[in-house]
Amino acid sequence: MGAVSSIRTFGLMYMRNIRQIPRIPVVLVFGIVMPVIQLSLFGNIFSALGDSPAFQATYPGVAYLSYIAPSIIMLTTFLGMANASAALLVDVRTGYFDKLRTTPAKAGQVIVARLLAEMTRVTAQALIILGLALLLGAHVESGFLGGVVMVLMSVTFSACTVGLLVTALSMKTKSDQATQSAFPLFFVLIFLSSAYVPKEQIKNDVIRTIIDFNPVDYLIQAVRELMVGVNNGGVMEASWPLDKIGLVLGASAVAAVLFGLLNYRVYRTSIEGK
Amino acid sequence: MSEAVIEVENLSKTYPDGTSAVKGISFTVRKGEIFGFLGPNGAGKTTSMRILGTLHHATGGSARILGLDVNTQGKEIRERIGFAMQEVGMDDLATAQEMLTLHAKLYGMNSKEAKAKAAELLSTFDLASDAKRRVVRFSGGMQRRLDLAVSLVHTPEVLFLDEPSTGLDPKSRSDLWRVLRKLRDEEGITILMSTHYMDEADALCDRIAIMNKGVIAAIDTPTNLKRSIGADRVRVTLSDGISAKQWAALQKTFRAGNVSQADGHIDIRVKDGASALVPALRILDDLGVQVRETKVLTPTLEDVFLQYTGASFADAEVKPADPKEKVRLSRKEKKAAKEAASSAKPSVEFSEVVA
Q1: Residue B262 included in any domain
Q2: Which residue of B has its CA nearest to A270?
Q3: How many Cβ atoms from other residues are within 10 Å of residue B67's Cβ?
């Protein structure tokens, strides 16, 4: 009975959240405008970068659009998860979150159901961006399955890091502005990586060192390898970098535990007042 | 005597920042009672209710709801109580019907039962024509009604209402009182409510706990509380004035300490104003005192509050800190500030309902 009713409660909350996603159109649109602009502009404006000898030496025959498409999918999932707490915050501020706390539903179920619904939304947004990239001429070397894995990996990593951090931040501050002020931090991590330019072509040693220590770059490497493959003697070949994928999923799991505990602590002090 | 539904023993709550909001309160509420916390903002009413509604943990003492321990059996308690908080808990993105059906399902009903329950409550609370509208567009009064309806989807045995009439116009307020009395009389529901309106406590509650600064100063029925602080007074306004001879005679009849005069009227302290009025007038008439107007004054809960706490109701309000002075307000301080802001407006418009 306990487990069944728990899953039922969880399902009820998840479905309620899914139903409400289209009712905050700003979150849906905001999460997709920037990636669409980048995809359609950068792919053209900087396409010459892809034609340079240095680039072609590392990625023979790869179009610049294909190179940045994985980065833009990641940007989409980062942006999307940065808004993961917007709806939760509405509930906290209207007092509805407290109302739910007076029912048999557990706060943990409410929060996790919210996060999973947001992951569903972000997955849809990332798939739209991937579809658009393909329409514009990008190519996924590892095929359809590779494309899906790219998106799911990116969503999982973003949810476990950005998603959980903004959730803790918004429960702590109960403020949209405070939560949004953390956004630039997440994007610096994307820009200080090989997302838009191969590391080999960056001349500045300091930035190259930062890239080596930037966890986000490891995710980008894994996702990009699925997209463009690996250079095997001057020819790009499809690749499934299981070690890199495993690293990303492992890091996601560690982040989920750490930030999950953080959320629990924030919840106890800020919401329960212990 | 009917069974005890809420048993509170020396309950206290100290927040991590050291604020002591509740300092050891004890009381018992019996089945079918409407029990009210009456006190100014910051008295500890909301904290007490949130502890009893299992939303906060107590730091001392014990409390049982329906025989269940609030600190360890929260889930079991939540299945059997309803809680309408001071801030209405509206799901701004949902319609009224969606809110009611979701909550009905959270308490275990299937879709069909949940829909039926929602329809029933929507009509009870006069919201049927707004069932499919988003609640964010509802008026304050409609949101209060929906909030109460949501709290009742599972037919709770105990209902917690924290300042239920805040922000309601006089008509909505008397409608609410009617609904609450009906719940008690027809469903035998036990209600624990808080209010800072004297008239509401007086009109609605079977018993009142007067709260101030985290402690309960007195508990009794409104009538007994008022009676406990003293007698009624018959106030007679004079047409002409009173001669020394007449005054001496009055003092002799009623005993010196029981009569006083000021501003052209005489106050006579009596045990029961209503029955003493006519005999008193007869005595005045016999003495030849010309009377223009008479009035019977009974003590109000305001007098009771003054008597038991030594402070007038307005003076006892906890003044929230100026947000400019202290940028980071704690949750509790914010709440106090909000309470003060919301209490600043109504009270006047409501007084006419009771008159």
Answers
A1: yes
A2: B331
A3: 12
**CA-to-CA distance for B131 and B115, rounded, in angstroms?**
11
Which of B265, B297, B329 is the endpoint of a domain?
A: B297
Q: Is A234 on the interface with B (CB under 8 A)?
A: no
Closest chain B C-alpha to A111 CA, distance in angstroms: 15
Among B183, B163, B155, B190, which residue's Cα sits nearest to residue B27? Answer: B190
pLDDT tens string B4-62: 999 999 999 998 888 899 999 999 999 999 999 998 888 899 999 999 999 888 999 99
Q: Is B212 exposed, middle or buried (0-12, 13-18, 19+ CB in 10 A)?
A: buried
**DSSP reduced 3-state for B108:** coil
Per-residue pLDDT at B323 exceeds 60: no
Check CB contact under 8 Å for A99 and B89. Answer: yes
Same domain for B175 and B33, yes or no, is: yes
Structural domain span for residue B289? 231-297
Query: Are A252 and A81 a contacting pair, CB within 8 Å?
Result: no
Nearest-Å Rg of the Cα atoms of chain A is: 20
* Same-domain pairing of B285 and B209: no
Contact B90 A95 (CB under 8 A): yes
Q: What pLDDT, on the 0 to 100 scale, is given for residue B335? A: 56
- Looking at beta carbons, which residues of chain A come within 8 Å of B107? 103-104
Using 50, 70 and 90 to split pLDDT, how confident is the model at B79? very high
Whether B86 and B173 share a structural domain: yes
Judge if B217 and B241 occupy the same domain.
no
Strand partners, B266: B236, B261
Q: How many structural domains compose chain A?
A: 1
Give the number of C-alpha atoms closer than 13 A to the C-alpha of residue B181, restricted to the C-beta side: 12
Q: Does A272 touch chain B (CB under 8 A)?
A: yes
- What are B313's two structure tokens? 């109701």
The ipTM estimated for the assembled molecules is 0.86
Question: Is B329 domain-assigned?
Answer: no
The domain of A106 spans 2-271
CB contact at 8 A, B135 and B94: yes
Q: Are residues B255 and B143 in the same domain?
A: no
Contact check, Cβ <8 Å, A274/B92: no
Residues B147 and B287 in one domain: no
Q: If contacts are CB pairs under 8 Å, which of residues 151-170 in chain B contact chain A? A: 151
Does residue B145 sit in the same domain as residue B293? Answer: no
Q: What distance lies between CA A254 and its chain's CA centroid? A: 16
Is B337 within a domain? Answer: no
Six token digits for residue A100: 């739910």
Å from B355 to nearest chain A CA? Answer: 34
Inter-chain CB proximity B106 and A9 less than 8 Å? yes
What domain count does chain B have? Answer: 2
Q: What CATH number is given to the structural domain containing B264? A: 3.30.70.980
To probe the interface with B, which of A23, A89, A103 has the most B CB atoms within 10 Å?
A103
Q: Do B260 and B165 have their domain in common?
A: no
Contacts for B295 with CB less than 8 Å, ≥ 6 apart: B234, B235, B237
What DSSP designation does A269 have?
I
